[in-house]
Protein backbone atom coordinates (compact mmCIF):
# COMPACT_ATOMS: atom_id res chain seq x y z
CA UNK A 1 0.00 0.00 0.00
CA UNK A 2 1.20 3.52 -0.75
CA UNK A 3 1.34 5.47 2.49
CA UNK A 4 2.28 8.84 3.91
CA UNK A 5 3.73 8.57 7.42
CA UNK A 6 3.09 11.43 9.83
CA UNK A 7 4.94 11.44 13.14
CA UNK A 8 7.40 13.43 15.20
CA UNK A 9 8.32 11.71 18.46
CA UNK A 10 10.01 8.37 19.17
CA UNK A 11 6.75 6.46 19.56
CA UNK A 12 6.24 6.66 15.77
CA UNK A 13 9.66 5.36 14.73
CA UNK A 14 9.11 1.56 15.00
CA UNK A 15 6.00 1.84 12.82
CA UNK A 16 7.91 3.81 10.18
CA UNK A 17 10.69 1.22 10.15
CA UNK A 18 8.19 -1.62 9.82
CA UNK A 19 6.41 0.06 6.91
CA UNK A 20 9.73 0.75 5.20
CA UNK A 21 10.92 -2.85 5.60
CA UNK A 22 7.68 -4.44 4.38
CA UNK A 23 7.80 -4.94 0.58
CA UNK A 24 4.00 -4.72 0.47
CA UNK A 25 4.14 -1.05 1.42
CA UNK A 26 5.73 2.05 -0.07
CA UNK A 27 6.36 5.08 2.11
CA UNK A 28 6.02 8.00 -0.28
CA UNK A 29 6.70 10.74 2.25
CA UNK A 30 7.50 11.23 5.95
CA UNK A 31 5.92 14.32 7.51
CA UNK A 32 7.13 15.62 10.88
CA UNK A 33 6.60 18.78 12.89
CA UNK A 34 9.40 21.34 12.35
CA UNK A 35 11.98 22.06 15.07
CA UNK A 36 11.01 24.91 17.39
CA UNK A 37 13.66 27.27 18.76
CA UNK A 38 17.34 27.66 17.99
CA UNK A 39 18.39 24.76 20.20
CA UNK A 40 15.65 22.36 19.18
CA UNK A 41 16.88 18.85 18.50
CA UNK A 42 16.03 17.01 15.30
CA UNK A 43 12.85 15.01 15.81
CA UNK A 44 13.33 11.24 16.20
CA UNK A 45 11.01 10.61 13.25
CA UNK A 46 13.03 12.99 11.07
CA UNK A 47 16.26 11.23 12.02
CA UNK A 48 14.72 7.87 11.15
CA UNK A 49 13.53 9.17 7.77
CA UNK A 50 17.03 10.43 6.97
CA UNK A 51 18.56 7.11 8.01
CA UNK A 52 16.10 5.19 5.82
CA UNK A 53 16.64 7.65 2.96
CA UNK A 54 12.94 8.48 2.78
CA UNK A 55 11.59 11.84 1.52
CA UNK A 56 11.09 14.17 4.50
CA UNK A 57 8.84 17.21 4.82
CA UNK A 58 8.46 19.45 7.89
CA UNK A 59 5.67 21.96 7.23
CA UNK A 60 4.37 24.36 9.86
CA UNK A 61 0.94 22.79 9.34
CA UNK A 62 -0.74 20.20 7.13
CA UNK A 63 -4.07 21.97 7.48
CA UNK A 64 -3.61 24.56 4.71
CA UNK A 65 -4.41 24.43 0.99
CA UNK A 66 -0.76 24.41 -0.08
CA UNK A 67 -0.06 21.37 2.11
CA UNK A 68 -3.17 19.62 0.81
CA UNK A 69 -2.03 20.08 -2.78
CA UNK A 70 1.32 18.45 -2.06
CA UNK A 71 -0.26 15.53 -0.21
CA UNK A 72 -2.82 14.93 -2.95
CA UNK A 73 -0.14 15.03 -5.63
CA UNK A 74 1.42 11.87 -4.19
CA UNK A 75 -1.69 9.81 -4.97
CA UNK A 76 -1.23 7.88 -1.72
CA UNK A 77 -3.85 5.48 -0.40
CA UNK A 78 -3.43 6.00 3.35
CA UNK A 79 -1.98 8.31 5.99
CA UNK A 80 -0.42 6.51 8.95
CA UNK A 81 -0.26 8.92 11.87
CA UNK A 82 1.45 8.43 15.22
CA UNK A 83 2.87 10.86 17.79
CA UNK A 84 2.59 13.71 15.28
CA UNK A 85 1.48 16.72 17.31
CA UNK A 86 -1.26 18.32 15.20
CA UNK A 87 -4.92 17.41 14.79
CA UNK A 88 -5.71 16.80 11.12
CA UNK A 89 -8.76 18.60 9.75
CA UNK A 90 -11.19 16.87 7.33
CA UNK A 91 -9.57 18.43 4.26
CA UNK A 92 -6.20 16.95 5.22
CA UNK A 93 -7.69 13.51 5.83
CA UNK A 94 -9.30 13.63 2.40
CA UNK A 95 -5.90 13.84 0.68
CA UNK A 96 -5.65 10.04 0.53
CA UNK A 97 -8.27 7.60 -0.73
CA UNK A 98 -8.52 5.71 2.58
CA UNK A 99 -8.07 8.70 4.88
CA UNK A 100 -5.85 8.23 7.91
CA UNK A 101 -5.28 5.77 10.73
CA UNK A 102 -3.72 6.70 14.05
CA UNK A 103 -1.74 4.55 16.49
CA UNK A 104 -2.43 5.65 20.08
CA UNK A 105 -0.74 4.28 23.19
CA UNK A 106 -3.79 3.55 25.34
CA UNK A 107 -6.96 1.51 25.41
CA UNK A 108 -9.24 4.15 23.94
CA UNK A 109 -11.44 5.89 24.89
CA UNK A 110 -9.29 5.95 28.04
CA UNK A 111 -6.49 8.53 28.00
CA UNK A 112 -7.20 10.63 24.94
CA UNK A 113 -4.42 13.16 24.53
CA UNK A 114 -0.67 13.66 24.32
CA UNK A 115 0.53 11.59 27.31
CA UNK A 116 -1.49 8.37 27.57
CA UNK A 117 1.41 6.17 28.66
CA UNK A 118 2.53 8.55 31.40
CA UNK A 119 -0.95 8.88 32.89
CA UNK A 120 -1.51 5.12 32.88
CA UNK A 121 1.63 4.72 35.01
CA UNK A 122 0.86 7.80 37.14
CA UNK A 123 -2.57 6.41 38.01
CA UNK A 124 -1.21 2.97 38.87
CA UNK A 125 -3.02 1.10 36.09
CA UNK A 126 -2.19 -2.57 35.88
CA UNK A 127 -2.99 -2.87 32.18
CA UNK A 128 -2.70 -0.70 29.08
CA UNK A 129 -2.20 -1.22 25.36
CA UNK A 130 -2.43 0.28 21.90
CA UNK A 131 -5.40 1.29 19.79
CA UNK A 132 -5.49 2.00 16.06
CA UNK A 133 -8.39 4.23 15.05
CA UNK A 134 -9.80 5.57 11.82
CA UNK A 135 -9.00 9.26 12.08
CA UNK A 136 -11.69 11.89 12.51
CA UNK A 137 -11.32 15.60 13.34
CA UNK A 138 -11.90 14.91 17.06
CA UNK A 139 -9.00 14.25 19.43
CA UNK A 140 -8.39 10.46 19.41
CA UNK A 141 -12.13 9.97 18.93
CA UNK A 142 -12.44 7.92 15.73
CA UNK A 143 -13.79 4.37 15.34
CA UNK A 144 -11.53 1.61 16.68
CA UNK A 145 -9.93 -0.65 14.06
CA UNK A 146 -7.59 -2.71 16.26
CA UNK A 147 -6.53 -3.15 19.90
CA UNK A 148 -3.59 -4.68 21.76
CA UNK A 149 -3.45 -5.25 25.54
CA UNK A 150 -0.46 -5.69 27.84
CA UNK A 151 0.12 -5.71 31.63
CA UNK A 152 2.16 -2.94 33.23
CA UNK A 153 5.01 -4.14 35.45
CA UNK A 154 4.77 -2.49 38.90
CA UNK A 155 8.30 -1.08 38.52
CA UNK A 156 8.16 -0.20 34.81
CA UNK A 157 8.79 3.46 34.00
CA UNK A 158 6.77 5.39 31.45
CA UNK A 159 9.80 5.52 29.18
CA UNK A 160 10.27 1.75 29.31
CA UNK A 161 6.58 1.10 28.76
CA UNK A 162 6.40 3.54 25.87
CA UNK A 163 9.29 1.81 24.09
CA UNK A 164 7.56 -1.53 24.52
CA UNK A 165 4.21 -0.23 23.28
CA UNK A 166 5.85 1.43 20.27
CA UNK A 167 7.34 -1.90 19.15
CA UNK A 168 4.04 -3.70 19.73
CA UNK A 169 2.12 -1.00 17.91
CA UNK A 170 4.05 -1.45 14.68
CA UNK A 171 2.62 -4.96 14.44
CA UNK A 172 -0.91 -3.71 15.12
CA UNK A 173 -0.63 -1.05 12.40
CA UNK A 174 0.45 -3.69 9.89
CA UNK A 175 -2.52 -5.88 10.81
CA UNK A 176 -4.96 -3.00 10.39
CA UNK A 177 -3.48 -1.97 7.03
CA UNK A 178 -3.83 -5.56 5.80
CA UNK A 179 -7.51 -5.45 6.74
CA UNK A 180 -7.97 -2.11 5.00
CA UNK A 181 -6.37 -3.52 1.86
CA UNK A 182 -8.98 -6.29 1.75
CA UNK A 183 -11.87 -4.14 3.00
CA UNK A 184 -12.26 -6.45 6.00
CA UNK A 185 -12.09 -4.01 8.91
CA UNK A 186 -14.80 -3.98 11.57
CA UNK A 187 -14.83 -0.45 13.03
CA UNK A 188 -16.18 -0.09 16.58
CA UNK A 189 -17.40 3.29 17.77
CA UNK A 190 -15.84 4.50 21.02
CA UNK A 191 -18.00 4.81 24.11
CA UNK A 192 -17.54 8.51 24.83
CA UNK A 193 -19.05 8.11 28.30
CA UNK A 194 -15.85 6.26 29.29
CA UNK A 195 -13.37 8.76 27.88
CA UNK A 196 -10.66 10.36 29.98
CA UNK A 197 -8.04 12.96 29.14
CA UNK A 198 -4.25 12.61 29.13
CA UNK A 199 -2.79 16.10 28.75
CA UNK A 200 0.92 16.63 28.30
CA UNK A 201 2.81 16.52 31.60
CA UNK A 202 4.57 19.64 32.90
CA UNK A 203 7.44 20.11 35.34
CA UNK A 204 4.90 21.01 38.02
CA UNK A 205 3.62 17.44 37.94
CA UNK A 206 7.01 16.32 39.27
CA UNK A 207 6.87 17.93 42.72
CA UNK A 208 6.52 15.14 45.28
CA UNK A 209 3.89 15.53 47.98
CA UNK A 210 5.10 13.27 50.77
CA UNK A 211 1.62 13.21 52.34
CA UNK A 212 0.62 10.96 49.43
CA UNK A 213 1.01 7.20 49.88
CA UNK A 214 4.22 5.37 49.09
CA UNK A 215 2.42 3.68 46.21
CA UNK A 216 1.27 6.98 44.71
CA UNK A 217 4.73 8.52 44.93
CA UNK A 218 6.32 5.39 43.44
CA UNK A 219 3.89 5.63 40.53
CA UNK A 220 4.65 9.34 40.13
CA UNK A 221 8.40 8.72 39.94
CA UNK A 222 7.89 5.99 37.33
CA UNK A 223 5.47 8.08 35.28
CA UNK A 224 7.77 11.08 35.02
CA UNK A 225 10.75 9.13 33.70
CA UNK A 226 12.49 10.10 31.52
CA UNK A 227 10.79 13.54 31.57
CA UNK A 228 9.95 15.82 33.33
CA UNK A 229 11.11 13.75 36.35
CA UNK A 230 9.93 13.76 39.95
CA UNK A 231 11.68 15.96 42.49
CA UNK A 232 11.72 17.09 46.10
CA UNK A 233 13.85 19.49 48.19
CA UNK A 234 16.38 19.01 50.98
CA UNK A 235 18.39 21.33 53.20
CA UNK A 236 22.16 20.89 53.26
CA UNK A 237 23.93 22.16 56.41
CA UNK A 238 21.45 24.98 56.98
CA UNK A 239 21.61 26.23 53.39
CA UNK A 240 18.54 27.11 51.37
CA UNK A 241 16.51 24.09 50.20
CA UNK A 242 18.03 22.41 47.17
CA UNK A 243 16.25 20.52 44.43
CA UNK A 244 16.72 16.74 44.46
CA UNK A 245 15.51 14.78 41.44
CA UNK A 246 14.29 11.27 42.26
CA UNK A 247 14.97 8.81 39.44
CA UNK A 248 14.07 5.44 40.97
CA UNK A 249 12.29 4.17 44.06
CA UNK A 250 11.19 0.90 45.56
CA UNK A 251 9.46 -0.40 48.63
CA UNK A 252 11.92 -1.49 51.36
CA UNK A 253 10.43 -5.00 51.34
CA UNK A 254 12.14 -5.56 47.96
CA UNK A 255 14.99 -7.46 49.61
CA UNK A 256 12.51 -9.88 51.15
CA UNK A 257 10.93 -10.62 47.79
CA UNK A 258 7.86 -8.38 48.07
CA UNK A 259 9.01 -5.49 45.88
CA UNK A 260 5.55 -4.62 44.62
CA UNK A 261 3.86 -3.98 47.97
CA UNK A 262 4.35 -0.88 50.14
CA UNK A 263 5.24 -1.26 53.80
CA UNK A 264 2.81 -0.73 56.63
CA UNK A 265 2.18 2.77 57.91
CA UNK A 266 5.06 4.61 59.62
CA UNK A 267 4.52 6.90 62.61
CA UNK A 268 6.92 9.56 61.31
CA UNK A 269 5.68 12.73 59.66
CA UNK A 270 5.49 12.48 55.85
CA UNK A 271 8.80 13.47 54.30
CA UNK A 272 10.84 12.42 57.33
CA UNK A 273 13.98 10.41 56.61
CA UNK A 274 13.78 7.18 58.61
CA UNK A 275 17.06 5.65 57.40
CA UNK A 276 20.16 7.38 56.00
CA UNK A 277 22.95 4.85 56.40
CA UNK A 278 23.23 2.34 53.54
CA UNK A 279 19.83 3.31 52.16
CA UNK A 280 17.68 6.43 51.97
CA UNK A 281 14.18 5.67 53.25
CA UNK A 282 11.48 8.29 53.64
CA UNK A 283 8.14 8.23 55.43
CA UNK A 284 5.06 9.02 53.36
CA UNK A 285 1.40 9.55 54.14
CA UNK A 286 1.00 5.78 53.99
CA UNK A 287 4.07 3.58 54.35
CA UNK A 288 7.72 4.28 53.63
CA UNK A 289 9.60 4.50 50.34
CA UNK A 290 13.24 3.87 49.51
CA UNK A 291 14.95 6.26 47.11
CA UNK A 292 17.29 4.19 44.95
CA UNK A 293 18.71 6.80 42.57
CA UNK A 294 18.77 10.57 43.01
CA UNK A 295 20.30 13.62 41.37
CA UNK A 296 21.25 16.74 43.36
CA UNK A 297 21.02 20.10 41.58
CA UNK A 298 23.89 20.61 39.16
CA UNK A 299 25.22 17.07 39.55
CA UNK A 300 24.85 13.70 37.87
CA UNK A 301 22.38 11.02 38.82
CA UNK A 302 23.80 8.65 41.42
CA UNK A 303 22.82 5.74 43.66
CA UNK A 304 21.32 6.97 46.92
CA UNK A 305 24.22 5.39 48.82
CA UNK A 306 26.72 7.61 46.99
CA UNK A 307 24.56 10.66 47.70
CA UNK A 308 24.45 9.81 51.41
CA UNK A 309 28.23 9.41 51.61
CA UNK A 310 28.68 12.95 50.30
CA UNK A 311 25.94 14.62 52.35
CA UNK A 312 25.14 14.69 56.05
CA UNK A 313 21.60 13.39 56.14
CA UNK A 314 20.37 11.58 59.23
CA UNK A 315 17.15 10.01 60.46
CA UNK A 316 14.73 12.72 61.52
CA UNK A 317 15.75 15.11 58.73
CA UNK A 318 12.98 16.05 56.32
CA UNK A 319 12.45 16.34 52.60
CA UNK A 320 10.09 19.14 51.74
From TrEMBL:
Return the Polar residues bias intervals: 181-190, 258-277
Q: Which reaction does it catalyse?
A: L-methionyl-tRNA(fMet) + (6R)-10-formyltetrahydrofolate = N-formyl-L-methionyl-tRNA(fMet) + (6S)-5,6,7,8-tetrahydrofolate + H(+)
Q: Does the keyword Nuclease apply?
A: no
Cellular component terms per the entry's GO annotation:
cytosol
Region Disordered: start and end of each range?
181-200, 251-279, 299-320
Domain Formyl transferase N-terminal stretches:
1-176
Under InterPro entries, the record lists: Fmt, Formyl_trans_C, Formyl_transf_N, Formyl_transf_N_sf, Formyl_transferase-like_C_sf, Met-tRNA-FMT_C, Met-tRNA-FMT_N
Annotated (6S)-5,6,7,8-tetrahydrofolate binding sites: 106-109
Going by the UniProt record, its keywords in alphabetical order are:
Protein biosynthesis, Transferase
**Family, per entry:** Belongs to the Fmt family.
Name of the molecule in the record: Methionyl-tRNA formyltransferase
**Gene it is expressed from:** fmt
Amino acid sequence: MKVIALGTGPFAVPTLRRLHDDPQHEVLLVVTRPPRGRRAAIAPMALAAQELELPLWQPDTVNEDEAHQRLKSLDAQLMVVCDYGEILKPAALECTSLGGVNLHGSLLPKYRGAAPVQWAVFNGDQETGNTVIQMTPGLDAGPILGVQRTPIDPHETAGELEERLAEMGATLVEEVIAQLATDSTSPVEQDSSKKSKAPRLAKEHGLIDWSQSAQQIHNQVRALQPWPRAYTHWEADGDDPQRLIVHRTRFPEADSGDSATPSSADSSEPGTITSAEDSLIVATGEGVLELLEVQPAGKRAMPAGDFLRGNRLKPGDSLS
